[in-house]
Write a structure and sequence with these properties.
Elements: H1 2-6, H2 16-19, E1 22-26, E2 29-32, E3 42-43, E4 46-56, H3 62-73, H4 83-109, H5 118-138, E5 142-151, H6 155-164, E6 167-174, H7 181-195, E7 203-206, H8 214-229, E8 237-243, H9 247-251, H10 256-271, E9 278-283, H11 296-305, E10 310-314, H12 323-339, E11 344-347, H13 355-368
Parallel strand pairs: 4-5, 4-6, 6-7, 8-9, 8-10, 10-11
Antiparallel strand pairs: 1-2, 2-3
């Protein structure tokens, strides 16, 4: 049909065979053989790797925070209450107060030099490092970029950019080691919404959770060993704090809780530690219903009261340090432990852009690109 639409009087339509044979005039762009002179340029086919993280406000002022929180808390994957019940509460009460408190917390951790959140800074660094690995392994025909589920850069804008760059295949990679409806699933939802707006959709794949990938477990173990080697006294307990979710989600079939427990077990085994040396807890409780337990903030206080004066804590479910780790763990949760009688609180940073983490993520990408690469 395209050939018919492009044909003018006296011209012979170009065949489908001819349309599929690009003649490259310069790297990355070409002209279809025997096509009319005014035919749009055809880019060399590429593969896109689109990394996705949760999101970030553009700034910590009231209106930036309100826009971000409104998008986040209006997501049915995050808060699944009926809209008639939830939206009035969100719009009239929560979003009139919470942007102030959340903005103050973001200000404490903000990267003022670059005027962006730490999550954005780290995600940029991760993307740059992974892009370098992909280029070294596969050349310039694999394009690596990132997007955010909430805030900027948006998923839609990055999908559009990849399509315009000639990506006929896109691997979408939510940077969540563990699957959860409120993280991995909603990121995928947004990705497919973006694809709905493309006239010519690329072939796509989504990356599944990688909570038990050997290189991911190795990277976690290395981060623990590095942190412990720098301490004068070994912590008595290592707390693995995962982002929480309503217990109801677990009962409805979300596998997140089980995957977190397995990560803790695999990490302990990789470190060669005895059973009971790593505690699995959950943080960031929100709303009135029961969430996955034990709650991190309560558990660390109980450890201190039980005589555990030295603990370390890490957040395996986060691929990059963010408000939940830099402010909540290293602020609120640290304070709860010390206030209850604890003496030494060590926060082990997320894997971020560490070499071991980049290696693990790159391995996951290569495994998911299988069959798409010629060599």
């Amino acid at each position: 049909m395209t050939a018919m639409l492009d044909t003018k009087a006296g011209q012979t339509p170009h065949s489908e065979t001819e349309l599929q044979e690009p003649s490259i005039d310069r790297p990355g762009e070409g002209r279809l053989l025997h096509a009319p002179a005014n035919h749009p340029p055809v880019r060399r086919a590429k593969i896109g790797v689109l990394l996705a993280n949760l999101g970030t406000p553009d700034n910590y002022d009231y209106w930036s925070m309100r826009r971000y929180l409104n998008e986040f808390l209006s997501d049915k994957r995050v808060v699944d209450y009926a809209s008639w019940k939830w939206q009035p509460l969100l719009q009239l009460i929560i979003l009139t107060k919470r942007p102030f408190s959340s903005g103050a917390n973001y200000k404490l951790i903000w990267n003022h030099e670059k005027n962006e959140s730490p999550l954005l800074t780290i995600t940029k660094d991760q993307t740059k490092a992974i892009a370098a690995v992909m280029e070294a392994r596969h050349g310039a025909d694999v394009v690596v970029d990132f997007c955010m589920r909430y805030g900027n850069p948006s998923t839609e804008s990055k999908v559009r950019a990849m399509v315009e760059a000639g990506c006929e295949r896109i691997l979408f990679f939510p940077l969540y080691p563990h699957y959860a409806g409120a993280t991995s699933a909603t990121a995928n939802d947004q990705f497919f919404r973006a694809l709905m707006k493309e006239k010519r959709q690329p072939a796509v794949r989504t990356v599944a959770e990688y909570f038990d990938h050997p290189l991911y477990i190795d990277a976690l173990a290395k981060s623990v060993n590095v942190a412990y080697a720098a301490l004068d006294h070994r912590p008595e307990v290592l707390v693995a704090s995962y982002h929480g979710m309503p217990k109801r989600y677990l009962m409805q079939g979300d596998p997140y809780h089980c995957q977190c427990a397995k990560t803790s077990r695999l990490l302990r085994e990789r470190l060669g530690w005895e059973k009971g040396s790593i505690d699995t807890t959950f943080q960031s409780v929100f709303g009135p219903e029961e969430w996955l337990k034990p709650y991190t903030v309560e558990h660390v206080a109980e450890l201190a009261k039980a005589g555990k004066k030295r603990i370390a804590i890490m957040a395996p479910a986060f691929s990059a340090d963010c408000i939940e780790t830099l402010e909540e763990i290293n602020g609120e949760i640290r304070e709860a432990f010390l206030h209850a009688g604890g003496e030494s609180f060590t926060y082990i940073p997320c894997l971020n852009e560490s070499a071991a983490h980049v290696e693990a993520l790159s391995a996951v990408i290569d495994e998911n690109l299988s069959g798409w690469l010629s060599g």
